[in-house]
């Protein structure tokens, strides 16, 4: 499967949102966060969140595109400190969409906001403990199921690692356990495991995540951003 890595555009946002949903809806986090919300109810939020990331300073959103079909088959979000911004200038329609969803914070009705708050409080605490000023941060990486095992995730990972290596910078990761083997292959070491018990909030099950960077390692659950 030949593919090209390029910067994402405003027009890509709906497809990026779908990849986000498809890649993470099997996780316990999803069922507890959106227990009675269907995909159509979540898609506007995810699309607005993608637009918000596209216009965020220092956030580089890169997509893997199938050379034959033009389909986006995966994408990653890299935060590169001090890097000239890759901000996308939104069209009036894109800007209206983003503003209409409170910059990605207009959550769907029946979303478990208490689960969301607990998770992000835990995540923020880990980031404050481990992320240093000059660290690169891999915020997100996902591929569609059909493209998994075909080098797409590796290429999206290498895109940021090459830039980090040029600065001799560490890279902090936040990932589900689905990506654990890939990051271990590239030399990350576990720092800490975070476990969120959804039963404490009246939900079901639990989710464990590990945290990681290129000298050490921190893995967290991704996909709800």
From TrEMBL:
<keyword id="KW-0012">Acyltransferase</keyword>
<dbReference type="InterPro" id="IPR052523">
    <property type="entry name" value="Trichothecene_AcTrans"/>
</dbReference>
<dbReference type="GO" id="GO:0016747">
    <property type="term" value="F:acyltransferase activity, transferring groups other than amino-acyl groups"/>
</dbReference>
<feature type="domain" description="N-acetyltransferase">
    <location>
        <begin position="3"/>
        <end position="216"/>
    </location>
</feature>
<protein>
    <submittedName>
        <fullName>Acyl-CoA N-acyltransferase</fullName>
    </submittedName>
</protein>
<dbReference type="Pfam" id="PF00583">
    <property type="entry name" value="Acetyltransf_1"/>
</dbReference>
<keyword id="KW-0808">Transferase</keyword>
<dbReference type="InterPro" id="IPR016181">
    <property type="entry name" value="Acyl_CoA_acyltransferase"/>
</dbReference>
<dbReference type="InterPro" id="IPR000182">
    <property type="entry name" value="GNAT_dom"/>
</dbReference>
């Amino acid at each position: 499967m030949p593919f090209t890595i390029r910067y994402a555009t405003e027009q890509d946002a709906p497809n990026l949102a779908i990849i986000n949903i498809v890649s993470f809806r099997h996780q316990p986090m999803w069922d507890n966060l959106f227990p009675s919300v269907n995909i159509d109810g979540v898609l506007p939020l995810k699309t607005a969140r993608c637009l918000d990331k596209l216009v965020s300073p220092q956030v580089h959103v890169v997509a893997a595109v199938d050379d034959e079909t033009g389909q986006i088959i995966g994408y990653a979000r890299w935060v590169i400190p001090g890097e000239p911004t890759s901000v996308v200038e939104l069209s009036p329609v894109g800007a209206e969409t983003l503003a209409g969803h409170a910059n990605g914070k207009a959550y769907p009705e029946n979303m478990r906001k208490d689960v969301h708050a607990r998770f992000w409080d835990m995540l923020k605490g880990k980031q404050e403990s481990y992320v240093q000023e000059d660290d690169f941060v891999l915020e997100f990486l996902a591929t569609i199921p059909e493209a998994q095992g075909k080098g797409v995730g590796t290429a999206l990972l290498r895109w940021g690692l090459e830039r980090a290596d040029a600065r001799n910078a560490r890279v902090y990761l936040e990932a589900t356990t689905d990506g654990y083997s890939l990051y271990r292959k590239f030399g990350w070491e576990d720092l800490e495991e975070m476990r969120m018990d959804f039963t404490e909030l009246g939900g079901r099950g639990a989710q464990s995540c590990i945290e990681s960077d290129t000298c050490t390692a921190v893995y967290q659950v991704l996909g709800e951003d």
